[in-house]
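Quarterly update, task 2.4: fe (ii) ion-bound model.
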Amino acid sequence: MMLSRRSFLVAAAAAVGGGLGGCGSGEVRTPPGPFQLGIASGDPAPDGFVLWTRLAPRPLEAGGGLPGRPVEVRWIVAEDENATRPVREGVALALPELAHSVHVEVSGLAPDRPYWYRFRVGGEESPVGRTRTLPPADARPGRVRVAVASCNHLEMGWFTAYRHMLRENPDLVLHVGDYIYEQAGVDKRVRKHMGKECTTLQDYRTRYAQYKADPDLQAMHAAAPWLVTPDDHEVDNNYAGAVSEEPKVTSAEFLIRRAAAYQAYYEHMPLRLAALPKGPDMLLYRRVAWGRLADFFVLDTRQYRTDQPCGDGNKPPCDQTMDPNATLMGTAQRDWLFDGLARSGASWNVLAQQVMFARVDRLPGPGVAYSMDQWPGYEVERRRVLQFLHERKVANPVVLSGDIHTNWANDLIADFAGLNSRTVASEFVGTSISSGGDGVAVPKDLDKLLAENPFVKFHNAERGYLMCEVTPSLWRSDFRTVPYVVKAGAPLNTRATYVVESGMPGTRKA
Ligand SMILES: [Fe+2]
């Protein structure tokens, strides 16, 4: 059923009357319209991609300001940047059950080229978005440029980093989790979360609506395809599988919450129908091949993991860390990953995932403490991955991580008990967009950390993102940082550049 132009104008007038944002005298205001949460594309293939939008003339209200019935959305894909020459077009139904989001899976397009797209509903047009298809599966591309982001905390800072990322025109944006934070609003921060800690579908929808309204985030979504995977804060801090952070919450209770959170994640991300949640389950691990240049294995290290060992936190290893049944990936995902790695013909094999892989001793001085929420808490599985990469001679493995709001360049060595052991792979951990507020270039005790963990080549605690440029012979990671996020308009720095040469595992300063 089509919502008429008049209905939108009525909704728009009501929204203006409701006082959305500040409006200076004499300022000309355009009606907000249905596309206030932006447009996006994602999960590219050689012949297509997903196009996303969510209709919401009043995004912070239940129902987004639309009646509870389906709305037809016209979409076009064009070969020109003004989107005037459509090569594909169609009509999608925005369902109230999915918060009037649409996920259009476009196929039949030419490989390895940009496309532009636009939505239209009831006479209202969205902005034009830019996206692209992947190179053919058997192609040998000369280069890909991938931006890696994580941890956009709305309250703790402006998303200035996305504004800089936009100017770099990456081919692909990888978001490795903490796209929202679930916690209740806190006063005296840069912005404030509406409401209490998210637990219901409506809570999460409102939270995404708040985040999605950010203009820098919207602009970056409209400029390149994204490949997304959630971490913990899209649901609940440090959850593990069906286990809540809070000890008294039962698995059944928590899975009801997880179902709500996953549904809202699906509703707000450019994901394929294959990821549509079924209750508390959502299929998110997947492989995206940039021709034969790079295979991106996108992992989900939250949904299938066993509970954090040793009571979570930074701890010395306990018996549980060597539990052979403990897992971050779950058996099915691990089998899928190993199978994919074994078959890969790509020059670079990339694990795009959430938590740091290197076994970093976080305790300065005598004794050791490892993060039980990261791979070292699941040491048997971590070693299995390293062993697999080494024994099966997987070509140029690179792990990309987020989660901890800091930058790291690490060699992944075969045996972290023997710190001189052979290097098997490389890891780049990208810092947060804004979580943690203004950061520091040189963290406290950096010298001690580097001395105790010689496989750590670089560490920094500013905000920003990773920019990776990959060619058949060289992987280059630029650690892009902004000096502050509590104020808008920070300039961009390249704090460090680390490279990996093909055939030589391990990273070095460029
Ligand atoms: Fe985070």
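Highlight for this quarter: The CA atoms of residues 160 and 489 lie 6 Å apart.
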